[in-house]
Specification:
This protein is an alpha/beta fold. The protein contains 6 helices and 7 strands; from the N terminus they run H-H-H-E-E-H-E-H-E-H-E-E-E. The chain has one domain: Rossmann fold (3-Layer(aba) Sandwich). Helices cover 27% and strands 21% of the residues. About 10% of the residues have low confidence.
Length: 181
């Protein structure tokens, strides 16, 4: 059954737990829990062309991975999450690497699904600069991301930027952003 807000926490029970303390789950992803399936579906619906190559940055425990086409590549560099993704999605391309150098190696126009936190993330400016370089190189055709605040995390980079929705069935609620050329 496809329940609503009451099932959001229940979805989290199947995920492995990270240790508590400074490296706790919240500290490691910048949120209370993984993205909901509702947010994942909203992000996927925002993609203009599912036949283009798709790369997911910061796949976490696979909330978004689960609803992307099987041809998508998912990147996750945290060891426990990477191992979980590899065992849960054995047929998928799951890479254990940093998104920043990966973006520099793209060779064709690609849709980027960004699930890397942009608030309180010391590496976000480097990621933002890497996406700008890839856009200038013609290897990013579209970027879909989400935020927990109504600010535009990639302001001034893409010719077209718009907030395409607010997903209330997520903890916390999330704004979905779409950027294109």
């Amino acid at each position: 059954m496809d329940g609503g807000i009451l099932t959001l926490r229940a979805e989290q029970k199947e995920l492995p737990r990270l240790e508590q303390g400074a490296g706790s789950y919240r500290a490691s992803i910048g949120a209370i829990c993984e993205s909901s399936r509702f947010l994942a579906r909203r992000m996927t619906r925002a993609i203009s062309d599912l036949s283009q190559p798709i790369v997911e940055l910061g796949a976490g425990f696979g909330s978004v991975t689960r609803v992307l086409p099987e041809s998508a590549i998912s990147i996750e560099r945290e060891a426990q999450r990477f191992a979980y993704l590899k065992s849960t999605f054995p047929e998928r391309s799951i890479l254990d690497c940093c998104a920043i150098p990966f973006l520099a190696e793209l060779t064709q126009p690609t849709v980027i699904i960004n699930c890397i936190p942009n608030v309180n993330n010391p590496e976000f400016e480097r990621l933002r600069a890497s996406i700008l370089r890839a856009l200038k190189a013609g290897t990013v055709s579209e970027l879909i991301t989400y935020t927990y605040f109504p600010h535009d995390p990639f302001a001034g980079i893409f010719p077209k930027a718009r907030r395409v929705g607010l997903e209330l069935l997520n903890i916390p609620p999330a704004f979905v952003w779409k950027y294109s050329c």
